[in-house]
Amino acid sequence: MTAPELPDRKKVVGFRVTEEEALARKNQRKLLELLGKLEWDNLFDYKIERTRIGDTCYTSPMSDLGLTHVAFLVKDIERSIAFYAKYAAMKVVHRRDDEKSKVAWIGDHTRPFVIVLVESREAAAEEPLGPFGHLGVAVESRAEVERLAGEARREGILAREPKDSGPPVGYWTFIADPDGNMLELSYGQEVAFTEQSARTRPK
Predict the structure, then answer these.
(1) Which of 99, 169, 174, 199 could be joined to 165 by an S-S link, Cβ 3.0–4.6 Å?
(2) What is the DSSP secondary-structure string of 86-140?
């Protein structure tokens, strides 16, 4: 389908016309004039794509709310990116480098949350997250917990053997990232159910 007219597009995404949106429309008109007729993909997630490429043209009609990220100083950003890709299925969604630092945002595309990795030539060293403090990532099965724990064991980075703690904690293991930060991989945790129950419980 072709791109809808801008006033109609406002109804599709359901937000009021603000000064920011008026500017976005103006810029989009310029793009349409430059690029001609465009195909419009209603399934396209503009927020993810804007994060990926860096938004220099549009101002978002909405802002993030709630928990959005954690940030770590790392010694080798490439090693950290590779670790989280392997053990947490996270990919780079934003990256920027300059003469003083390298920055990467990584996420798993399940929710608007990222880990911010910063390799800095000037920042002082920090204590890693642990031995109990940790990031928690859920995987698809108990077998996947065991598989990744086995990989970590062979690499010498398994911090805690897999353990079944029952609901709502589930089956979990601890793995150390390249800087010593603890990553918990789990199956059967009930965070979403527990949080939803708490929100709907009568006060």
Answers:
(1) 169
(2) HHH--EEEEEEE-SSEEEEEEE-SSSS-EEEEEEESSSPP---S-SS-EEEEE-S
pLDDT tens track for 175-199: 999 999 999 999 999 887 777 777 7
Per-residue pLDDT tens over the stretch 49-69: 555 555 444 445 567 888 899
Cα separation of 51 and 68, whole Å? 13
Rounded CA-CA distance 41/4 in Å is: 10
Q: Record the pTM.
A: 0.66
Q: Both tokens of residue 189?
A: 């945790």
Q: Which amino acid is at 159?
A: A
| CA separation for the pair 187, 196 (Å, rounded) | 18
Report all structural domains of the chain as residue ranges with CATH numbers, in order of start: 6-53 (no CATH), 65-126 (3.10.180.10), 127-203 (3.10.180.10)
